[in-house]
Design goal:
Pfam families: Glyco_tran_WecG (PF03808). The chain has about 240 residues and is α/β, with parallel strands linked by helices. It contains 13 helices and 8 strands. Helix content is about 55%, strand content about 15%. Helix 2 packs across helix 3 and helix 2 crosses helix 13.
């Protein structure tokens, strides 16, 4: 029997494939559970290794492997993660479930233009899902309590938050108990993709597991963030070799 959790540098990842993950999350929502879903790539793993407060957040979340580097690391360390569970695809799959089950959905974050466009596109594609509210991520700290109360009043099954990482997951962890949402998930740049403002890598790049390279070529300013990848690879291999000795 496959273990439900794989440990990559101390971060507990679910080992479920994409379809199994969606099924499992839907079951937990319907059973009345509350959960914080965190999509983690090598950058997030390295941050969790360097920041104890963030590591605590990660350890308490339902962590899915968003990043081919995680799949490779699992292979190198003989752990059963075999496919990515990307944030964009998980949001779309959960929205399809919301459409079937008429769930309430709240969208928070991104720019005013992007969040409005994303809400419109999702309403067109999933007309039976109830988008009960949305607002951009440009708010002051003294507005947070009112935003949290508004979201809580909507009794949402799905809350998607786009503030960039790690801020979005820190925000969700801070207000988790007050938000009253069944599933809370930080979604990074997903609203940019859904709104059409940012194009996802072509399917060939996705199939070749080179989506990270496509994003880097499209946005060269990401290069500093991408430095986490070689550090991650070195740390995983170093740990593997030290466990052998």
């Amino acid at each position: 029997m496959t273990k439900p959790v794989a440990n990559i540098l101390g971060v507990p990842f679910t080992t479920r494939g994409f379809g199994e993950t969606v099924t499992h999350l839907v079951e937990r929502i319907e059973s009345g559970e509350q959960m914080h879903v965190l999509t983690a790539n090598p950058e997030i793993v390295m941050l969790a290794n360097e920041n104890q407060a963030f590591r605590t957040i990660v350890e308490q979340a339902y962590v899915v492997p968003d990043g081919i580097g995680i799949v490779y690391a699992a292979k190198w360390t003989n752990q059963p993660i075999h496919e990515r569970v990307t944030g964009v695809e998980l949001v779309e799959a959960l929205m399809a479930e919301a459409d079937k089950k008429q769930w309430n959905v709240y969208l928070l974050g991104a720019s005013p233009e992007v969040i409005q466009l994303a809400a419109q596109k999702l309403e067109q594609r999933f007309p039976n899902a109830h988008i009960v509210g949305y607002r951009d991520g440009y708010f002051r700290q003294d507005e947070e309590e009112q935003i949290v109360q508004e979201i809580a009043s909507k009794k949402t099954q799905l809350l998607f938050v786009a503030m960039g990482s790690p801020k979005q997951d820190q925000w969700l962890a801070r207000y988790r108990d007050q938000l009253q949402a069944s599933l809370m998930m930080g979604v990074g740049g997903t609203f940019d993709v859904i709104s059409g403002k940012v194009k996802r890598a072509p399917m060939l790049w996705q199939k070749l597991n080179l989506e990270w390279l496509y994003r880097l070529l499209a946005t060269p300013s990401r290069w500093k963030r991408q430095l986490a990848i070689p550090r991650f690879v070195w740390t995983v291999l170093k740990e593997k070799w030290s466990n052998r000795s």
